[in-house]
Amino acid sequence: MQSVEKFEAIGAFEPREVKRVVALLEAQGIPFDLQADNSALSNPVRAVQLSMGTYPEGSKIVIFVPEADYAAAVEAIKVMFPV
């Protein structure tokens, strides 16, 4: 029987931020998977927000890492995006 590796989401990022995050994960040898999240585009008031210049939320890219690498990936992300 083959085991399936579980992946955990480390965050949803703006498309322009993803290149930096991916480079960081690659440099640390952490495997990852990307998935687009376009749910914010279906917000019914998005057109009004755009016309008013309030810059509504746009598409995000969710980055997933293997469960075993989750802690290391989160620590790396904290350095890049300190709170």
Write the layout of secondary structure elements.
Elements: E1 7-13, H1 15-27, E2 33-37, H2 46-52, E3 60-66, H3 70-80
Antiparallel strand pairs: 1-3, 2-3
Give an overview in words:
The chain has 83 residues and is of the alpha+beta class. It has one domain (7-80): Alpha-Beta Plaits, CATH 3.30.70. Helix content is 37%, strand content 23%. It has 3 helices and 3 strands, in the order βαβαβα. A 3-stranded antiparallel β-sheet has the order 1-3-2. The longest helix is centred in the N-terminal third of the chain and has 13 residues, at 15-27. The radius of gyration is 16 Å and the shape is elongated. The mean pLDDT is 89.
Q: In summary, what is this structure?
A:
With 83 residues, this protein is of the alpha+beta class.
Report the order of strands and helices: EHEHEH
Number of domains: 1
- Per CATH, the class reads Alpha Beta
Structural class: alpha+beta
General shape: elongated
Strand share of the residues? 15-25%
Calculate Rg over CA atoms.
16 Å
Rounded to the nearest angstrom, the distance between the terminal CA atoms is 43 Å
Q: Specify the biggest β-sheet.
A: 3 strands, antiparallel
* Share of helix, binned: 25-40%
Separate helix tally: 3
Observed structural traits:
83 residues, single chain, 3 helices, elongated, Alpha-Beta Plaits, alpha+beta, 23% strand
